[in-house]
């Protein structure tokens, strides 16, 4: 256990990749009344199976915040959350899916600091700074970012080969440049992600012929961490935010971008639809006749494969219509204000206070029927 900046940090025990056994160290030290997790609860780290086959939580008052990133919600997720003391849904989609299985949950979304993530005062300066502080995907053939460029920003964790849809977005860029050759000289792409984690993003961009237009965050800055203020300037430099994720339990970058007044292009799927509708362009899945192409994961539920041709159409629309971008950006900012930490945190406080009140001693007079 290490004390870092007045925060006690616990190690992950060997072989305990998902933290279930490590959590018991915390219980022993803190003896918590409640145990809150934000976790892919279908993995089962915080429940255990008794010899009689009955599942039970590792803490009697487990509050689980559920990330529902499939359609429908996987049965494995429902099986786990049934054991929780309280269930928190960060999206209306998740709340409705759980209700189909008879599981009650309270809606408390994730949030952002809207005072930090806000529309920029000087987009040209942000674009120039972005060009100087980024690294090219192709050192041999690179183009700078300057104040006159049309800038597309991507932000997503490159942790598995498919989910964040980077290759799908490169395909959409390829189609965009083919459809509008003049955009090749005016457009730049900024990618905030680990470049060679699950996918080799520079290689994928190179194979699809778009790497010379792309720059991104250096591994050094990713390792040190880009502060919220720096992220706000990244969004401020952009003209549009492109996010063709195949699935996501909430997708905080979408909310950050909208809070900065940035129009979004995102997949028309579960919570991305919930956040992006009316604030940008929703990209439907690929269709073959009446069939919809979806990726069925090992959880036996679907994630969405966005249509890169429709994404190309959205990029063309955004490129040629700055007034439409501005309208979407304004609507997105107004929408994001309801997710400010000051509002979201009050919902958590109300939840905790309701539990304290439920457990509080009641005088005999109050307990009489």
Assigned CATH architecture of the largest domain: 3-Layer(aba) Sandwich
CATH topology call of the largest domain: Rossmann fold
Distance between the termini: 49 Å
Strand content: 15-25%
How many whole angstroms does the radius of gyration measure? 23 Å
Low-confidence stretches: none
Total helices: the number is 15
**CATH homologous superfamily descriptor of the largest domain:** Glycogen Phosphorylase B
Detail the topology: elements first, then pairings.
Layout: E1 2-4, E2 7-9, H1 20-30, E3 35-39, E4 47-49, E5 55-57, E6 62-66, H2 75-81, E7 86-89, H3 92-100, E8 106-107, H4 123-132, E9 135-136, E10 150-155, H5 166-179, H6 183-186, E11 187-192, H7 201-207, E12 214-216, H8 219-224, H9 228-237, E13 240-243, H10 252-259, E14 264-267, H11 270-276, E15 280-283, E16 287-288, E17 291-292, E18 294-296, E19 302-304, H12 308-320, H13 322-336, H14 341-359, H15 364-367
Parallel strand pairs: 3-6, 6-7, 7-8, 10-11, 10-13, 11-12, 13-14, 14-15
Antiparallel strand pairs: 1-2, 4-5, 9-12, 16-17, 18-19
